[in-house]
Fold each of these.
Amino acid sequence: MSVRTLPLVFINLGGEMLYILDQRLQALNTSEDNSEKGVWSENDRRRVMNDIVGAMFSKDFMDELLKPQQLYSHRTLKTVLTRLAHASIMRLNQASMDKLYELMVMAFKYQVFLCPRPKDLLLITYNHIDTIRGFVRHTPVVVNQVDETHRKIIEVYSSLPEGEFQLLRQTLLIFFQDMHVRVSLFLKNKVQNPNGRFALSASGPVPHGIDVPGLIRMFDRKGREVSRSEFPTGGSYTSPIREGCFELHGDRVIRLGMTMYTGNNPEETHTSKASSVKKDDAPNLLAKEELNLLARLMGSMKAENTPETETGFRINLFTTDQEEEYAGASEGAAQSLFRVINIQAMQDEQAATQLARIAGQFAEGDKLPEDLSSSKGDDLLAMMDDL
Amino acid sequence: MYHKEKSIQIKNSASALYNNLGVLRIAPRRLTYFTVVHANVVNMVSASWDGLNYSHRQLQSKEPNVATSTSLITQAAFCALPSRDLLVVTSQKGIQMYESDGSIMVYWHALDTPETATELLCVPAQAVFARGISAVCESYICVGLSTGAILVFDVPSKGSNITLSDVMEGHKESITDMASECCGGEVCIADLVSADDGGNLCVWQSGEEFKLLNHIPGFDISCSSVKLWKGTVVAGYGTGQIRLYEAVTGILHAEVNAHARWIYSLDIAPFSGLLLSAAEDSLVRVWHLTMTPESHSVEIAHLYNECVTDTQICGAKFCDGDGYAFAVTGYDLSEIIRYTQS
């Protein structure tokens, strides 16, 4: 419904992706310089962050997102986010990307669900942007990109009325409907119940601009208040906290959108699906509109970082035997995606060339660089397997 | 005052949309129909009063052509006219009208949306959709649009010769909800009220040409749900407030700080004056409205609360005209929860 969801979706989901990557990268071996092979240095980590943030906040990409358009399918979103992740020297396999996507979406769903007022979606977005700015603070060029994007978001969204924000929020909630993946960190913090649903409390401060429930006022025909009475609310609400800052820098006040991942405890990101989740197996035809969007978004990103001179770092973020199986199964789904794209491509020449190029890049991207023995990749894999 | 009954399971979960529950009571067949919107599908359940038989049906939103992506539904509501009952479904692409059991689509009205071709310039900067449905008196069905316009359809007593007879311009912002009351034998001045995203309310008198009787300004907060009862407008807002206005004059009778979050649904049981309010704060509240003819005003008293744990409620309706039972839907919930008076 809302035609303004994409920028917020990508910044928030991208932000969650970076939070998780940051946590994973921090957990690895560190060395002071680059000299030791197979070991991640601070520079390596910064480079990964800079590359991804640079791709995400690039002017061309953001301009495409800011055009008014519908929110399409999870498949399209996942494809673009994978491409963003691959703007760095990191390589994620299908299983890792799927789990990463689940985590990102559940975190954002939680934030949107609990958002106090629809307008506070912006504060959640700004929390993500603030933290991202911190990740790339050593690279002024990228910081500038982030600031520019932030300014554009402020310009476009600040004047939207509350009703439009609620429409945006409803569009996002419909998009996240029926996703109840349980995340161990959320379960531990009691923000999520064992059945996968988020906890909603009937107490605490009311959102800014809302009055504490409980009061009934009656007026006479001249507008004078003639009586006041109270009713039991069944909750324990308190007066609102101050409003967060909607400028480039400032105290956002609400904490939704800030990272929940502390330290380097990989246990936090364990996920499990609730029993009644339905799988999106059917390869439904991507509508022409959606394919066009995909082509434009991919086209607007910097060329994918295909490591030719150096070996790429292949990361399995979450590796278990089950997931190797799952990876096999989802390869099949990925194949059918390519088939669908090819068929559609015949109808539209312009989309065809771009998409053929993209499809080709995906096929190449999945192949492992041969020489892994001396790369950091092997050690990473070994380390991840131990988790 | 109320206790929980056995829920009705539905095929999909409810979407986070205003007024997301439709109820139609068919007394002669001892059945009640329920409708709940899930993305681009309307889930219909027909429930027998003895609780033994449930039958399900799903209605899809109509796609103009294959090249466009699915059209999200904004609302599904029953329109009870003297001669017939219809189910009206509004979406991003248009307005569908079905026989009340969902068996046949009798009318389709496409919205003027520019087709999104390869040029992005065609895409409007604002969302386009229909929302806000109400039957009005003898033979009209009114549907609101995201532009603020209201379409008036003339409905014959049977058949599919439904025609667009009027377009009312009274709002500048997207319509959120509409409501009417038919006064039967009594003289009725106002019979339709419409609400928009800015909290503005328009009060209309139906006829060959609908007449705008009054405009009650809002405070830049959406009025998400509105009802009309005995000449009183009952409006629920994004601030969690409920306000009672005298329809024709706009005089404010009462203001209630009813909920801690956005109100999503209001309903009135016309014979008893019971009012139901439901919000994202997970609470359903029951109130009592009383007319006081001496002071020409309406009073509101609180009766009952029900908390639907961890659920942002999106639809709440009485199942009968006395308010003996009510039903509730919530975002991401695949059931219709029912309550009956103890």
Amino acid sequence: MRAVWQAARAAVRRRRLQTLVIALVVLVSTMTIVVALGLLDAATAPFERAFARQQGAQVTATFDAAKTRPGQLADTTRMPGVAAAAGPFDQAVATLDQPVTVHDPGPVTVVGRADPAGPVDRVNLWSGHWATGPGEVVFSSPPGLDHDGPHAALGSRVTVGGVPLTVVGLASSVSQSADAWVSPSQITALHPTSVQLLYRFAHADGDAEIRADTAALRAAVPGGALTATQSYLDLERAVEHVPSAFVPFLMVFGILGLLVSALIVGNVVSGAVVSGFRHIGVLKALGFTPNQVVAIYLLMVSVPAVVGCLLGTALGDLAEQPLLQQIFHGVDGAFLADSLGLSAWVNIVALLGMPLLVVLAALLPSLRARGLSAARAISAGSAPRGGRALGIQRRLSATRLPRSVSLGLGLPFARPGRSALTLAAVVLGVATVTFANGLAATMTAYGNAEEGNGSYQVEVDTGRAEFGMTPPTHTDPQIQSLLGSLPGAVQVTATTYAPARLAGHAKGLNLRAYRGSSADVGALVVQGRSFHGPGEIVAPPGFLEEWGVSLGDRLTLQTAGRQEPVTVVGETLSGDPDYVFTDWSTALAVSPTLTGRQYLVRLASGTDVGAYGRAVRAADPGLRPSAKVTVNAGATTAIASSTILTLLLGAVAALGVFNTVVLNARERRRDLGMLKSIGMTPRQVTVMMVASMGALGLAGGLLGVPLGVLAHALVVPITGRAGGIAFPAPMVEVWHPGAIALLLLSGVVLATLGALIPSRAAARLTIAQVLHNE
Amino acid sequence: MTSRSVNEAAANGATPKVVVRLEEVRKEFGEAEALAGVSLEIRAGEAVAVMGPSGCGKSTLLNMVAGLDRPSSGRVVVHGEDLTGLNETGLALFRRRRIGMVFQFFNLLDDLSALDNVALAAQLTGTPARQARRRAQELLDELGIADRRNAYPAVLSGGERQRVAVARALMNRPALLLADEPTGALDSHAGEQVMDLLLDLNQIGQTLLLVTHDPRLATRCANRVVDLADGRVAGERSLERAG
Ligand SMILES: Nc1ncnc2c1ncn2[C@@H]1O[C@H](COP(=O)(O)OP(=O)(O)OP(=O)(O)O)[C@@H](O)[C@H]1O
Ligand SMILES: [Mg+2]
């Protein structure tokens, strides 16, 4: 055993570069796998994960304080079937005077709670501290969502129900148990009229069980005391479609990552053993038994592999958290960011799977070497020759290509197995690049359309007296013409919302009406056309699906005492399924008291948005201008995650090429020596080695690009269906001939980058020795 | 013989010009000294055999002349070119133009036919494939192995391989042919064939520098023997060739 260990150590020492390459490849591969699986994990069922992490409330119950006796509510927490409970907490609905992160001015639900932890609904206090003293409030907000500088929500002063409060913390609750929290003593100042209790039950799988649990609660308190309940299943249904849109493409990356990593690691490790055949022969001649030889080789590759695997897992874990935060930043729903975290299974897969893969990849050729006689093993060390390879060499030799190039092109055929594995890695690498490119193009096009293609730059809201804001001094039509008369304005459109109902349906919907230009809607229409006059509506894909409506259908809008027939003339790219877009007169027909709520202002190019905003405020202090938000969270997320994974996968594939060149050069050092002895220049050696991989790169491009295009064509519609987006053809067919040509070249670039360093090393190799001996 | 490098000076009866000049060449590998100050001149048309015990520095000396390795000190001048002043590319171009090398273990490319192995030497200099193959064919013809031109090294006998290697070395009409134990891996019959070949080459004017253990090879092919011991020239003798 000692002899085995020593021989393995000596072998490692003599193969520093190879050992380093194995460690590096395993490291980057493990990192890729950890990040890819981590992304996948975070995007799959994020609600469930976040819910489990926070011990979310399966039922959030609101009781009428006046209808219950003290102690009665506390008794419900000890009812049979209740697994855990928090509360009772006093609860008030009060008016907020100004926007705080995601909360608009208006009524907010405030709960008096002593601390964010507890047996149920462990609120994630991600910024500041909990509201414990008088005058302090914590607002709910998705993690990371706050402004910097003077507009930061944290530290700002607000009034809630007329009481001045300072925002001391920002927190998120997956159970969405409140808009804001204050201390139990502070809540009395807000005149609470209801009481909140948060429950987890022994049986809460499915709506039926939740209904039974709620019924038991209702029975335990006086009639009418339980005023509202919220099931976690409803919350989950409401949010689930957002992240699931990311799952299909993260799946593709995850699978690509696993495949490329496995291929490269297998290739690098088996290559190390195959290139050691001569050495194996020598070891056998020295008297090592076949089993000892296998042990030496397993040790030789396992040591760097295990080191790489451990480091890669650790680095992957380190990188994952900020990466995921970055990637999922801004995606709707706090739960997504709350679901992020290291998942044990990903690390277990990496830590067990990678060494297993390494041992398997080393074992197969080791066992072959085990069976070889010492003499055969020694002669197997030089590159083998095959019938087809020879024919190809003969034909290459007769071409007009420079001889260094034609020699290089023939090299891959001498080691078909190794070349095939390298090629496969390059193919997948190119497919990844292609897929990521297509995805980015689609998401960018989608983001641009969502933003209305620059159809307006400024939104102007009106102050509302009922929320304690200054109301505008002008009337609705006056505001529209006022905004249009200010310098820089080109077009002003008034918009508003009106609730309505579809004849025959209990559920309500909302009309979003436009007065002026509807370019904003027009840019979003992907099927049919925008509305041109009264009686026409445009609807998002989610609406059409949910209500079973198709383009061209005639519907009847209803409000109390009025009805209005409309035709669906267009489908938008995406949008809230409960909103349809109409002309102003259509909305007016069902809601005659309609006035403008928001004005969209298109500015002449070059106009200073800030200056225009100041002019608006000066003209009427009741108007609240803001620049249109231009980030598109979904697109940013998709592009950011695909870029990172593409870079990682590209690095792994390039390392695979690197390794192949190192092995080829080592096995062929006699040939290299001879070639130099007959006058091959260092540059010609470099060209030859790079050409050998460049050919693989070109083949990889030719095979990888169609694969990536195919993956894109398959995944984008799935993503769209999951996310309620109807990608129109121009957003799916994003391939331009120029881009395709560049992508085809990406394989060559990848292979060349990977091959360059070891090729130059081969060119500088001193070969005087190998020529005379061996 | 197509080799037109038959030395014109020799033909004219003038003193043949110096092809190789080593001046106080030393080569150290760490502590060990492989060459400890070797000075040597080889004139055009000569056939010089370097002999000596294993490890005395013969191969190292040959590497210096071929520009495959650089001396630790001293000067190596071949065909008027000072090798110490050349960079790697310069050395490669020098080898291409001036040197042909033959090794004990042939060093043929396994995946090229005999013909393509020989043609390779010319193709590296940019000679078109057709032309290079034509010349390779001529050389194989002259060396008596034309019928084996499409065979691969794996199926050639040792003697045939070595003749292919010699053909490759002659491809670019080198001023100097270097051979390191060219018969070392061959049986006596094949060895003799190669010896005859080298002798023929020298007789039509090819300058030859041989490294060998084998006194028979030396006496048969060389007209001068340099004895090397511990990295130094221990003696020189001129020979009347046996063959
Ligand atoms: N690259 C090298 N690194 C270290 N030592 C070397 C190297 N090349 C040669 N030597 C040493 O230099 C000395 C001369 O070696 P060389 O190969 O020239 O001997 P040789 O006369 O050709 O021997 P042989 O007849 O066995 O081929 C030897 O001691 C050898 O160990
Ligand atoms: Mg030697």
Amino acid sequence: MPRPKFQLIVIGVSSGGMQALKIILGQLPAEFPLPLLVVQHISSDAGDGLARLLDELCEIRVKEADEQDRICAGTAYLAPANYHLLVESDGILALSADPPVSYARPSIDVLFESASAVYSSALIGVVLTGANFDGSQGLKTIKQNGGIAIVQNPADAAAPQMPLAALAATAVDYVAPLDGIVAVLKKLADA
Amino acid sequence: MGLPTVKSAELEDVEIGLLLTGIQQIYGYDFREYAAASIKRRLAHWLAESEFDTFSQAQSCLLRDPDTFLSLLQGITINVTEMFRDPAFFLALREQVVPFLKTYPFLKIWHAGCATGEEAYSMAILLNEEGLAGRYRLYATDIDEEVLQKAAEGVLPINVMQKFTQNYQKSGGTASFADYYTARYDHAILSASLKKNIVFSQHNLAVDAAFGEMHLILCRNVMIYFKPILKERCLSLFDHSLMPGGFLCLGLKEGMERKKWSERYEEMVPRTRIYRKCYATA
Ligand SMILES: C[S@@+](CC[C@H](N)C(=O)[O-])C[C@H]1O[C@@H](n2cnc3c(N)ncnc32)[C@H](O)[C@@H]1O
């Protein structure tokens, strides 16, 4: 059997993120064939409430990432507050308490770059709403390694800076509003 | 000839593998046992700042010149720590564990991977405030001699004290945090009374032996960087060093999920990562 073209989706989102994640994760079917790793910037003392709330709202499974979690299809893993989320070489998740990168921990760049090093062209990177420029370097790396880059249409974003920074950093494959991104992800997941 | 061309990411993995093997053989530090993702990220950082283009290029110099290796070592070890890091953890320690500790005449506590010592100093403050002054010894260990030296000095940059004061207050501190240090220009000198019951010493969790009969062991934000095999080695080491009924504290995202451990250790308060070793263990 040929291996599916894509194996993992990584998503980075900052201010306005809760709303955006509700829409994206909320529209994926329970049997969605790819796993998702999500970095949402949250305050350093937030608990795992966000993951639990999304898990209730969504058909796919949503959980806060734990050290050594094995990546499973149809599951979204959220980076815990105050930790970077990374992919270990063998499809296992890793966390790190390294210093913030560009003031962010979890950092979108750290997730994107580590995932790209493992999945290269089988990776899909998505940058959503946010008021900083985290994720742009990571998205550039994903493109350089042959992956797919998707950016939320800045006009559609609650905070356009992060999508704009991503668009400035690299050529991307899709620019779309949230609903359009869901459609693209479903299409790519079947490829 | 049809030799394969290797993708640069794969090539780099090969180069890093060779380099880490060389480093282990020459300097004795075995980073192959550390989680690959974080190590690779920090190595890439070091390379970008260095004069070399590839790890193969850097290797010759790294293996021959100890100073170059030291710069790499500085770049790939993470020593960040705080006083009363994760205040909710220290609050749980104060409220749930200290009452048990008070039942012993004398306490031995091990801070494994203590970095620059803030955790040990926090513990000294907490124990003194709980009336245990003079009844404990803290063994604070790390693999890294340089951080241990700093730890023993007990001098902190003044600009972190505001954050540490907040941590202290959130952790249930009962005094004024400013009483524990003297401000000098841009430094805060921790009071000598905190230092006198702390022993700082070098200890490598990957190779060194167990410590005797501890009542409490803290190893937080250290094993998160280890591969599962090394993490298991450490947990066994702690298990051997801990007396029955003793407490083991891990980082907030580190656990003892494996059945072998969950049968013998009970988490005191959910999500605090404070585990108590059962009395009846085989
Ligand atoms: C991020 S710091 C944690 C400091 C403190 N425990 C805390 O939670 O704030 C990690 C420390 O682990 C130390 N370390 C790494 N590998 C070690 C090993 N094999 N044995 C002992 N210490 C080690 C590092 O030198 C570093 O100081």
Amino acid sequence: MLSRRITAALLALPLAAGLSFVIPSGSGVFSGRAAGPLFGGVKIARADVSCGFTTADLETITAARAQGLDADLAARKALLMRTIACAKGDAAALQSGLAAITVPGADASIRSQLSGKIDDAMTYYDLELAKVQTAGLSGTQQVAQEVLSWRQSNYDILAAQVANFELYESNQPLFATANDRVTQMQNLVGAIQQAGQNNDLQAAFSNAETLVQTANNENASARQSLSRLLPPDQSLGLIKESLSSLSDAYGKFFDVSTIVQGLLATKEK
Amino acid sequence: MNLFETLKQLKAIQPDPAFKENSRRTILATEPAPRILPSLKSLSPRRLIFRLVETGAAVALTGFFILLLMGGLSGSKFAPVQYSSIDPTALKAEAKAIDIQIQLANVKYSEAAASTAALAGPKRPVLAAGLMAAATATSTEAASSTATTTAISIDQALQGLTN
């Protein structure tokens, strides 16, 4: 029984001391400081806090409950602080990922907007961590519920918006290439049409041009949706539509290619 | 005689003073050569405009050739006709890149849909779409008394702490 109490206290100690931590999170590992000032800013030793949660972590709460109120509270506080610190670490990793995206000047404002929202999220986690410090048993339950609800209604949406922004930016070179193709094909089709009118070629090229234009418009709408921080499913829907139109345009590019190659082969004979 | 001694003596050689004076007078008496390029003030307005147009055209032409050499016209209307634009291999590669992005978007789309559906329910089994780590747990129960240890997400840990 004593050993369990000691274990619970040891679990609570590192985070309460505001120590540095290294957290494997999502796609990578990040390091940071677990809300130093809020925990007195005492720097003890560097330690690793695992963010790989398992059912065993919850079992420690069940076990501590059987040992009395103090043990239960200490175990709960330890796990809750670790959970919130890891959630904050997730936010920090999200921000680092966002900063690493190659963004043209025009889209920098969207990135800073999202980064600002992540800052807000980290501040929220700090405030909740501070609450845990003075919370009683029901207080920890309340904080856990608050953080859970807040994550579902705020953080998850923010994370999805960041993911959409990343997807949007990674699409831009494809749009630039497709637009270059249209211009190059326009010159080629123009030159061929001067030599002799070909309706099939003109129709295929016009269709391709229209589809690329549609894709461009949808891409612009997606950007607008991202900049206005509209619901992520809406932005993602627009991104998806723009890619679909671009893919259709390439179908028409292939038609143009086939027709031109056919014409060239006939000329050579 | 030592070569260095000879060179030192050569350093001390001076021209004849009369010759020196005569040469100076001759040089100073010579009229300056006429300017090859006339000054702008001396040009007539028509000639001045011609000169400006001439210089401008030379600069523009140089710029155009530099642009042409660097491929700056590619993708513009004035670019030369490129048969490579209909190269099926290149088109195929580009189309494939788009398909990959579509698949990526579809994955995110279904994740987002799952997230929305889960939010409507009493308990949320997985994290939302995005860069967050996907939850690896299969159980939504907060605490488990079974001997096996299962990985749970942050949200599941929080859910467990609400009880």
